[in-house]
Amino acid sequence: MSDTIMSVLVFTGVALTGGGAYLFRKGDRRRALLMFVAALVMFANVAIWLIPTT
Length: 54
Known about the structure:
By secondary structure, the chain is mainly α. The chain contains two helices and no strands.
């Protein structure tokens, strides 16, 4: 189950990054920045969850 959640989070982060790049090129910089921030938060969550615990 955890692997599925990680996959969905990474896929969503990639989609948000692509959407942010598209909006940035169209000139909607505020929405693009918000999409980049949301993608960064998702990637940070995945990184935190994947840190091995000892």
